[in-house]
C-alpha cells in the first residue's frame, strides 16, 4: 500500500496544478466573470438589440482568443461589411499592382480585352490612371472586344435590385469601366459676374441633360438609356455635386474613349478572350488610395471592379463568379472561414450570409498580413474619417477603426478597437431584421465599445 503513496501525491499535485491553471485559461478565452456579465448586460440583454437579430464577437488580437461572444456563428446579411472580404481577396491576389488590360498586337491593329480596371477617366483618380499614357502612345487602331459568352460581365450582381438604376449607390459592372461608370455633375465656382457653369463627365452626357418644367424627381433616366431628365429646381447649388449610374454599352464605351483620346481610332468587337499565353498584359499600379476609398467611403463601384480585377489576375478573365468560388473554396478556408454564402463584392446583395466570427477572423488575418498601421490608415476612424466621421467619438482619443454596412433593416460594424490600457481587440456587430432607423443600434454599439475602451 505504501508504494502507491508517492503515486497518489504526484496525481494530487498534477490535479492541483490543473485547477490553478484553469482560471487563467478560462480568463483568456472568456474574460473575467465581471467582464462577461457586463457585456451580457450591454449586448445579450440589451432592450434595443432584442428588437432585431443581433450577433457580436470580441477577440483579443494578441492571443487570437475570444473575449466575449453572443450568437457568434449565426449567419447574417452583412451589407457593406462584405467589403472587408473583397479587400482581403484583393490584397492576396493583387496587392498594389493590377492588370490594366489585355491585348494582342497585329500589324494593322491592336485587339484589346478588358480586365475591370476601374481608374480609366475616373474623375476622382485622374492622377492615378496609368492607362492614359499607354493610350496616348497608340499609333494603330484599337479594337475593344466585348465577348457575348465567356468573359461577358453581367451589369448587376446576384441579388441586386433591378430598379435601383436611378439611385446613386448602384453602378453597373464592366470589363471596360470609364468615368467610374457614373454621371458626375457639379457647378463651377462663382465667377466675377456671379455666374456658375455646369461641369460634368462624361462630357457628352453631361451636356445633353433635359430639363422638365413639371414637378419631377431630382434626376431620372430610363433603365436602358442615358437620357437624363432633371427637375425644375435641379440647378440650385444645394443639389451639387451629384452622381448617378450610367447604362453601359460597347457603343458608349468605344465612343467615350475615342472622344477622350481623339488621336486614337477606336472601335468595338466581340472576339472571345484568347488563351493566356497569347495575351500581353499592361500591368499598372493600384495605390492604397483606392483601398482607402473602398473601405472609408464604402465605394460600391470599386468593390465590384476589384473582384473583376482579382479574377483577371488569376484567370485572365474578369469573371466575378470564378473569383468568388475560389475565395470561398480556397482563400477564406486558409484563415478558418468556411460554410459561407458570398454573392458580390459590395454587399448590395442580400444573398450573402456570414457570421460575426467570420468577420473577426478576416480582421485578424488582415492585421497579420496587411500590418496594423496600414490597416488603420485604410479603415474609417471613429470621429475622424469616412463613414465613422460622426460615430464613436465619445472619448478623448480615437479608439475604433472599422467598416460599416447598411441596408434597410441591416446595420453592421466590424473593426479594431484599442482600449485605454493599450489592448487591441477585433470586434464585429451584426444586426438584421429591425424596423426603422439604425440610430438606436449605433447608440447602443457605441455604449458597448466605450465600455470596452474604458475597462478592458
Automatic annotation (TrEMBL):
Keyword check for Signal: yes
Keyword Cell membrane among UniProt keywords: no
Keyword vocabulary terms for this entry: Carboxypeptidase, Hydrolase, Protease, Signal
InterPro entries: Beta-lactam/transpept-like, Peptidase_S13
Name of the protein this chain belongs to: D-alanyl-D-alanine carboxypeptidase
Organism lineage string: Bacteria, Pseudomonadati, Bacteroidota, Saprospiria, Saprospirales
Alphabetized GO MF terms: serine-type carboxypeptidase activity
Superkingdom of origin: Bacteria
GO biological process: peptidoglycan metabolic process; proteolysis
Record's signal peptide: 1-27
Family: Belongs to the peptidase S13 family.
Amino acid at each position: 500500500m505504501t508504494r502507491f503513496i508517492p503515486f497518489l501525491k504526484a496525481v494530487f499535485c498534477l490535479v492541483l496544478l490543473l485547477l490553478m491553471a484553469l482560471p487563467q485559461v478560462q480568463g483568456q478565452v472568456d474574460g473575467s466573470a465581471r467582464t462577461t456579465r457586463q457585456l451580457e448586460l450591454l449586448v445579450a440583454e440589451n432592450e434595443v438589440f432584442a428588437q432585431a437579430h443581433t450577433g457580436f464577437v470580441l477577440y483579443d488580437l494578441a492571443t487570437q482568443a475570444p473575449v466575449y461572444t453572443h450568437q457568434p456563428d449565426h449567419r447574417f446579411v452583412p451589407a457593406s461589411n462584405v467589403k472587408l472580404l473583397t479587400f482581403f481577396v484583393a490584397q492576396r491576389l493583387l496587392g498594389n499592382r493590377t492588370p490594366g488590360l489585355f491585348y494582342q498586337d497585329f500589324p494593322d491593329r491592336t485587339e484589346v480585352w478588358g480586365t475591370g480596371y476601374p481608374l480609366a477617366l475616373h474623375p476622382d483618380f485622374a492622377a492615378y490612371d496609368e492607362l492614359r499614357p499607354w493610350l496616348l502612345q497608340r499609333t494603330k487602331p484599337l479594337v475593344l472586344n466585348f465577348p457575348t459568352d465567356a468573359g461577358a460581365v453581367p451589369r448587376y450582381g446576384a441579388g441586386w435590385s433591378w430598379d435601383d438604376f436611378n439611385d446613386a449607390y448602384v453602378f453597373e459592372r464592366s470589363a471596360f469601366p470609364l468615368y467610374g461608370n457614373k454621371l458626375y455633375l457639379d457647378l463651377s465656382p462663382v465667377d466675377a459676374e456671379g455666374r456658375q457653369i455646369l461641369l460634368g463627365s462624361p462630357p457628352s452626357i453631361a451636356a445633353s441633360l433635359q430639363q422638365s418644367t413639371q414637378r419631377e424627381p431630382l434626376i431620372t433616366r430610363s433603365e436602358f438609356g442615358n437620357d437624363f431628365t432633371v427637375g425644375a429646381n435641379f440647378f440650385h447649388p444645394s443639389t451639387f455635386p451629384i452622381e448617378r449610374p450610367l447604362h453601359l454599352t460597347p457603343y458608349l464605351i468605344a465612343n467615350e474613349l475615342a472622344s477622350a483620346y481623339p488621336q486614337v481610332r477606336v472601335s468595338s468587337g466581340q472576339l472571345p478572350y484568347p488563351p493566356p499565353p497569347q495575351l500581353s498584359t499592361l500591368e499598372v499600379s493600384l495605390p492604397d488610395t483606392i483601398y482607402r476609398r473602398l473601405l472609408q467611403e464604402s465605394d460600391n463601384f470599386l468593390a465590384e471592379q476589384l473582384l473583376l480585377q482579382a479574377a483577371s489576375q488569376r484567370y485572365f478573365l474578369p469573371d466575378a463568379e470564378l473569383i468568388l468560388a475560389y475565395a470561398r473554396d480556397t482563400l477564406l478556408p486558409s484563415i478558418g472561414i468556411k460554410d459561407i454564402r458570398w454573392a458580390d463584392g459590395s454587399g448590395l446583395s442580400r444573398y450573402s450570409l456570414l457570421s460575426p466570427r467570420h468577420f473577426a477572423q478576416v480582421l485578424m488575418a488582415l492585421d497579420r498580413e496587411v500590418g496594423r498601421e496600414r490597416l488603420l490608415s485604410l479603415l474609417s476612424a471613429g470621429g475622424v474619417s469616412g463613414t465613422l466621421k460622426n460615430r464613436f467619438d465619445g472619448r478623448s482619443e480615437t479608439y475604433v477603426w472599422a467598416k460599416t454596412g447598411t441596408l434597410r433593416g441591416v446595420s453592421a460594424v466590424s473593426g479594431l478597437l484599442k482600449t485605454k490600457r493599450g489592448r487591441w481587440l477585433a470586434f464585429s456587430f451584426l444586426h438584421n431584421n429591425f424596423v426603422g432607423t439604425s440610430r438606436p443600434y449605433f447608440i447602443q454599439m457605441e455604449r458597448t465599445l466605450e465600455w470596452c475602451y474604458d475597462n478592458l
